[in-house]
Amino acid sequence: MKKMMILFLAAALLFPFSAGAKTLRLAMDADPVSLDPHVQLSGGMLQYSHLVFDPLVRWTKDTKIEPRLAEKWERMDDLTMRFYLRKGVKFHSGNELTAKDVAWTLARLKRSGDFKGLFEPFADPVIIDDYTIDIKTKKPYGLLLNMCTYIFPMDSKFYTGTDKKGHPKDTIVKTEWSFANENESGTGKYVVAEREQGQKWVLKAFPDYWDKNTGNVDEIILTPISEDATRVAALLAGDVDFIMPVPPQDFDRIEKADGIKLITMTGSRIITFQINQKRREEFKNAKVRQAMVYAVNNAGIVKKIMKGRAGVAAQNSPRGYQGHNPALQPRFDLAKARQLMKEAGYEKGFTVSMIAPNNRYVNDEKIAVATAAMLSKIGIKVDLKTMPKAQYWDQFDAQVADIQMIGWHSDTEDSANFYEFLYMCPNKETGYGQYNSGNYCNKRVDELTLASQSETNVEKRMAMLQEVEKILYDDAAFIPFHWQMLSWAGSDKLKNANDIINVMNFPYFGDLIMK
Amino acid sequence: MFAFIIRRVFQALIVMLIISLLGFAIKQSVGDPVREITGISVSAEERDALREKLGLNDPFLVQWVRFLDRAVHGDLGNSFYFKRPAFDVILSKAPATLELVFATALLVILFSVPIGIYAAVRPNAWPARFLMGASIVGVSIPVFLTAILLIYIFSVTLGWLPSFGRGELIEIFPGWKSGFFTWDGLAHLVMPSVALTTIMLPLFIRLVRAEMKEALETEYVKFARAKGLRPSRVLLLHAFKNTLLPVITVGGVQLGILIAFTILTETVFQWKGMGSMFIESIERADTSLTVAYMVFVGFIFVVVNTIVDVIYGLVNPMVRVAGGRS
Fold it and tell me: Which terminus of chain A faces fewer neighbouring Cβ atoms within 10 Å, N or C?
């Protein structure tokens, strides 16, 4: 009996907290590059921001906006939106969140090389009192609220002062040590307890977190596993609980495995080819461009190459975006394509060059090869060259080929972003058309896109954007393929994994409930 | 002798210059680091300003000379991704690789010696034939595939061993976190070291067997047998001892190759050592780390080789004469 008692006591001592504590072991293909949310505008950094910081407002799964640090907001006039901040929110340092922190963060965003473009339309905010702030834009701006999903207030007191190198603590540095790269004080659910970059992160729940109605995960261990096969094996072996992304070739295996769930969702990243009208006289003819669109069986590519795991596209805007025009349908028709080539006077065809990355988008190289084969059916012979993404973008910018692949995700979760970067007339001064390697240029598209920026009436704005989408479709400004699918997989221990994911690919792990 | 040493050091310096030049040439074609560290929507001017700040707009030779100047002062540049001096990053990753190589070397010795001796003594016995055949299979499968197979058998299907990483580590002295002293750490070490061993083992079994066979034919072994010594004593003390020299020489050379193979093994097992760091630095276009690593590894090899050469010269005057003006 005594022996039993001792054993029992020993066991109790060894596993004191095993009953309550929930640890999520998370494997991603790469870890966030810094602790400073403003150092880089990338999916990884935004995923990190949602763990350690909180935005003013955030996207829900059905792309609505929901309150976070801002409890409510109201439009004051064309240029002003008033935000009422949640009271009693603590930063990890213990400081309390006030309107000053929001203003400070907005000013810092405008200084950040990566974010200043997005926050260009914003004017200086006006602090009304500790918990009320007016966020202002220079011109009426329809996407003000969308952009507030990027405002993750930082602890202004914590980041003020000078660091050990004598630099201000809030300096934004991309390639060297800085205070903000190594230290954080956000309002988020998790505190970075331990971090070995590229190797392991330990995030611990913040005891003073304001939102008490969230998930029950006390600790997150994040391991970057860049090798696809290893990441999947780690999940199958039960060494991790959740992985993102899931390589498409393993979808079936994971679906069949016991105790593991695969979650997929059509994302908003559109895959396209741009047809360069400056390099090729032939491409100036709209009929040739249309013929190319008609010749490409993108639904077939989705079925055969993507194994059905992508949304077939005929336009840029996915469903749910204001510019999504339901009338636009995929148009694969080989006979029509040949007919158009004939009408354009290029029956005999011609030879073009094409480039695509081979490790940037899902199956990018295979898609390019299939496209080359499809174009050959209407007499367009393609010289294809593929390369790793590290080399690709310089070649893309230099427009070294007649046809170039590009995938685009809208940072604003809005259609206008596609047009601004991909289809507006390239203009070095304004920066519009920065990725328009097709050199497509249509005054009406420029007009409508610019007008949409300051249109705050949703109905009117939708009409404008949908018109742009229709023009691009009719003009065959680009060859559309599909919207890439987002994928996650987790063990059954995760009870509501389905609810925390979203089309932006920022899983809200703070809301996760584990068994 | 002094002239010989000076000559060797001078040669070593030239080799180092060539290595750094090669590293730089590769760096230019790996890709653009600025692309990697900025969001895609960042404006061209913003990107160019950053490139200018990092000195990436300067001509190739200017960049190279600047790198050399700093390298001489012990600064190999800053890793863009780790945001730390590249040299520190490399040093922090070294223990993982060294432990993996050490464990593999241990396994190779443990298996190649008895199997090699056995195969030499009983060349026609079926276990010997089986082992020789099996070892061929091991070396002909790419280490990448062996590693994946191991993971699927022992982690996914059987659930015996952890699938990735180094497990629980203990800091044995500052900067050296070791996995040798915890069960968890050792369990994580099993599969990566076995995968690497399959590549190295066949060569050493064959080497031991060949040398052993030769030794068994020699007069002194015959004599020892004729004297009526115990067979085990003849095998181990007389014959085996004399096979050791060539085995050690080849072993030294193979150690370098082993480090090269760690790149693949580390990548599959997410063993965060220098090998996976190198591959990742290329994928991330973290070019300053790529170059620093090449120069660092080159430096170690050159220093070791130079020291060996100088010692050879001290021991064997013929080397000195052969290398000099004669």
Answer: N
The pTM of the full predicted model, rounded to 2 decimals, is 0.87
| Nearest beta carbon to residue A230 from set B46, B84, B269 | B269
pLDDT for position A16: 43
Give A-chain residues touching B41 at CB under 8 angstroms.
Answer: 41, 117-118, 411, 421, 434
pLDDT at B124 over 90: no
Q: Residue B1: count other Cβ atoms within 10 Å of its Cβ.
A: 10
> Which amino acid belongs to residue A498?
N
CATH code given to domain A266-485 = 3.10.105.10
Say yes or no for a CB contact (<8 Å) between B83 and A116: no
Closest-CA distance of chain B to residue A331, Å: 30
Nearest CA in chain B to A392: B31
Helix (H) or strand (E) holding A135: strand A132-136
Confidence of residue B31 (pLDDT cuts 50, 70, 90): confident
User: What pLDDT is recorded for position B319?
Assistant: 62
pLDDT of residue A406: 96
Question: Do residue B32 and residue A394 have CB atoms under 8 angstroms apart?
Answer: yes
Task: Give B13→chain A minimum CA distance, Å.
Answer: 30
B94-283 under CATH 2.20.25.90, yes or no: no
A117 vs B42: CB contact, 8 Å cut-off?
Answer: yes
pLDDT in tens, B71-110: 888 888 889 999 999 999 999 999 999 899 999 989 998 9
Sorted by where each begins, the domain ranges of chain B are 1-81+285-326, 94-283
Residues from chain B that touch A411, judged by Cβ atoms under 8 A, are 39, 41
| A203 HSE (CA, 13 A, CB side) | 28
Domain A2-222+493-511: give its CATH architecture: 3-Layer(aba) Sandwich (3.40)
- β-pairing, A23-28 vs A219-224, is parallel
The pLDDT value recorded for residue B1 is 73
* Contact (CB<8Å) B46/A116: yes
The arithmetic mean of pLDDT across residues B127-153, rounded, is: 85
